[in-house]
Amino acid sequence: MVETQRIRNFCIIAHVDHGKTTLSDRLLESTQTVMAREMKDQLLDSMDLERERGITIKCHPVSMNYQYKDGEEYLFNLIDTPGHVDFSYEVSRSLAACEGALLLVDASQGVEAQTLANAQLAEAQGLTIIPVINKVDLPSADVDRVSKQIEDILAIPAEEAILASGKSGIGVEEILEAVVERLPAPRWTDYQQPRALVFDNQFDSFKGVICYIRVFSGCFNKNANLLLMSEDRKTPIKEVGKFCPQPVPMKSLNVGEVGYIVTGIRDVTEIKIGDTLTLADTPAKEMLPGYKEVRPMVFSGLYPLDTSDYEKLKKSVGKLRLNDAAFTFQSETSVALGFGFRCGFLGLLHMEIIQERLRREYDIDLISTYPSVVYRVHLTVGGVIEVDNPLDLPDITEILKIEEPTILARIHAPNHCIGDLLTLVTEKRGSCSDTETIDETRVMMTCNLPLNEILVDFNDRLKSVTHGYGSMDYDMADYVESSLVRMEILVNAEPVDAFSTIVHKDKAENRGRVLCSKLKDILPRQLFKIALQASVGGKFIARETISAMRKDVTAKCYGGDISRKRKLLEKQKEGKKRMKQIGNVNIPQEAFVQILKSST
Fold it and tell me: What are residue 377's phi and psi, to 5 degrees?
């Protein structure tokens, strides 16, 4: 057992693709935690999706033993955190389990949006930051420029930065020594009662919920009675252990250590990330600071392409929920799409990952409705309701006002792209409150935007106008009153619920025209005319007409008076009029797929 003073808990934070996972691999190699024959690239990224996209989706803690130059043995607990803004709460809990952080900056790309956001998160948690300039062996590396950015933007002295390369192993030994010398020993160890922070959890079909914990005080032994402080629930400890990097059972977890506890609880929602664990026999009186409930921010309907797959989808979302407490779902029915689920996600990337996992791991073909956010609707009779589904929006006469969530976005981009970016932000109903020069080539713009406007194509447009060099990070801001309406699409005077959306009043007409135009191209023609209309509050704002298929009823008239042909045409016209009154338009499933795919 290592003394508490020789334990170092730290994480690696960086922008996407700045080499965080590669550096983790080198640290595992240098400390001989993983033998050379077992080593592989991106070792801590266990999911195929993580390897393909080069991003970390789930947290991956690992314990390493390090021999310092004076011969003393130190215990390093590295917590590999997600870097994307969608998982910022999990990142903040992982940071709360550490005393220090390695801040990685790419030597060729410099400080990016998520570099700054993660650095601010670490500072807010009171962590000691060690800056590391990574990829210094690249031909395009500009160490002097990046050092100046670290000093100017992050307010960290440039001389503290360690030059390294995760790929070739340059500077890895200096990083390990800096962890010993610069990072403090575990904090809050003198608290009387045992306390541990849950920074992640996972469901195992044999063991139940496995909590990833950091012990701040006391000792957690197998068979002891555990108390979940936020739920005030007791449960026995079935197993404790560490990650080396695979789970290894231990007799106990002591002060300052990072590991896991097997609870035997079968529902992952009962153990919340950020909760404080203590022992039922000697319970703590105060929870560890910073706990809050995680709430979904983006909602979308998920339906199986083949309606017979509904039961399969039901089981699949249930299993995914076991490993991701931030993902929520409830059953819903659509006249057009059949049975499905209304799902809540932390953000767009989270939504994309869940859908991809359902397709890959459970072999289900899905269709998703247009994503929406949570609106606050103030009613004329008093009271406020929250609406995430356009179909739940009350009648326009019952609404006093609607408020929508906004974000505070920080956009890093080349300075020659400012004009195009301002145009994009204005088009998305946003405003730029501040522009700050980073260096001679890059700027940082601070913008206020409605969350609803960045859901679909904002990131793609950002990458397009900045030629791939722009990056964005955002924080949730306030709810703001806005002129929002529900737009419905009517096919042959019948509203189609799958196409209903909540849009801004000024954008409703344009969006209605686009949807009607797409439907005109996609829907098959009938023997009568079909009217496609976009409606807001009973008023039609756009219309397209699908012309009728016409049988040539005059083909058998080879001669004679013109009145014969006119009589046949009039008879056909009357028949089409009757058919339009009683005819139904069956929209094929492929039409929904094409429209919703082009919308999302």
Answer: -110, 120
Q: Is pTM, for the whole model, over 0.90?
A: no
Query: pLDDT tens across 459-483, in order?
Result: 878 888 888 778 888 888 899 999 9
CB atoms within 10 A of CB 49: 16
| Phi, psi (degrees; rounded to nearest 5) at 598 | -75, -20
Collapsing DSSP states into helix, strand and coil, what is residue 419?
Answer: helix
Rounded Cα gap, residues 229 and 232, in angstroms: 5
Six-digit token pair at 563?
Answer: 């009145």
Cα gap 198→214, rounded to integer Å = 7
**Could you tell me if 218 and 194 are in contact, meaning their C-beta atoms sit under 8 angstroms apart?**
yes
What are the tokens at 13? 């934070």
Q: Give CA–CA dist 117/103, Å, rounded.
A: 11
Strands (E), 245-305: 247-250, 252-253, 258-262, 276-279, 298-304
Longest dimension (CA), the chain: 114
232 CB burial (10 A radius; 0-12, 13-18, 19+): exposed
Does residue 418 sit in helix, strand or coil?
helix
Residue 571 DSSP SS3: helix
Model confidence pLDDT, tens digit, residues 262-307: 987 887 778 888 889 999 999 999 999 877 777 788 888 888 888 8
Type of residue found at 538: G
CA 424 from centre of chain = 22
Q: Are 379 and 402 spatial neighbours (Cβ–Cβ below 8 Å)?
A: no
Q: What is the DSSP string of 218-259?
A: S-EETTPEEEETTTTEEEE--EEEEESSSEEEESEE-TT-EE
Q: What is the CA radius of gyration of the chain?
A: 29
Closest CA to 309 of 343, 356, 341: 341
